[in-house]
Amino acid sequence: MSKQTLERLAAVVSVCILVAAWAAGWVRSEGAILERIKNISSEIEDVQQVRPSVFEGHRTGNPAEKLYIGIADHPSYGGPLKVAVVVNSTGVIERVALVESTDTSTYIKRVLDEGILDAFLGADEGKLPRVDAVSGASLTSNAMKKGVAKATAYIRGEAVKKESLSLSSTETIKAGVTIALFVMAFFISSRVFRWNKKYARLGLLAVSTVLLGFMYGAQFSLSSLIVFLAGFWTQGMASYTALICLILAVVVFFMTRKNLYCAMICPFGGVQEGLGRITKNSPPKRAEWMKWVARAVALIAMSGALYFRNPSDAQYEPFGMAFSFIGSTAIFALMVLVIVASLVVRRPWCTLMCPVSSVFEFLSFMRNWCLPKKKKTAKKEA
What we know:
The protein is an alpha+beta fold and 382 residues long. It has 2 domains: 3-22 and 165-370, no CATH class; 39-156, Enolase-like, domain 1 (2-Layer Sandwich). It has helices at 3-31, 33-40, 105-113, 138-156, 169-189, 197-215, 222-230, 241-256, 260-265, 267-279, 288-308, 319-324, 329-342, 348-352, 355-370, and strands at 44-51, 54-59, 62-76, 79-88, 93-100. The protein has a 5-stranded antiparallel β-sheet. A hairpin with a 4-residue loop joins strand 4 (79-88) and strand 5. The longest helix has 29 residues, at 3-31. The two termini are 44 Å apart. The model has no long low-confidence stretch (mean pLDDT 86).
């Protein structure tokens, strides 16, 4: 089997796996809501839906004691965050639980550890207590609070105004800055740019590292790709910056046939390249099997995230830890390893294991397969 045939077969199989994972995840999510409600508390049984977003059950062993469960979601950082609220017949909140979330698990854990949901226990459903947002995870905590408010409103039978998908002024500025960075990358790579492209690229990479990395914490990652593929963005998000970055990266790639994002904009790539220039090292050699390992890991992560409909399941990159110190112990160890390796070889993560690089390799292959370059014919001499 030739290399080209193997590449094409792998591309087709990968697409089929992702489509199957997406479809299976959608079916799973549609039929899992009752099961999730039952898992909220062992004291609830005989749960039945009585109206949209509202379920009714009774306390275990006491059919006369009714319990009402409201389910509601609210846009959070990575998409909709869904909570469930259990209210007894006297209107007192007995249980609040997180049912579904697309946010990073570390942010979720931080908010839950602060007891933001426990603060509603024992409160009257019509008079919710004032709960402060958790510092460093305000988008996630605010989504939980508003989800609780919506769920109790559903139980009371009140109409809840649907959230608009409009961007806040802060998010509009972030979107504008992101677009400006890609416009500059496009300009620098064009023939119109007459100045030193090497220093212009490094300058843009440094600016992007500060803005998209340290200030905004938004970059093209597998999690943002899952948000796009799963359609979570259609249900509202508190921040669209990472998604805009993803879309622009792909659009510019197809327009220029160049991966300008990795070369000029990627914040984590900027950190690695900056460290590498201190020691003036060279890129590591990438064996053929390393390329396939990186692709396989990315495919497995994406398939799992699509099936479980949780973008954070695909987030094994050390981006968040590098800029926001958010992530597990394993991700922290990986970040340290990459930083140390960056002093030895240039851009080790980008070259060897970055899933975004694998995504661009796939896009490049599909583009060349479906839209091959026209061969130039030599002019005959007169």
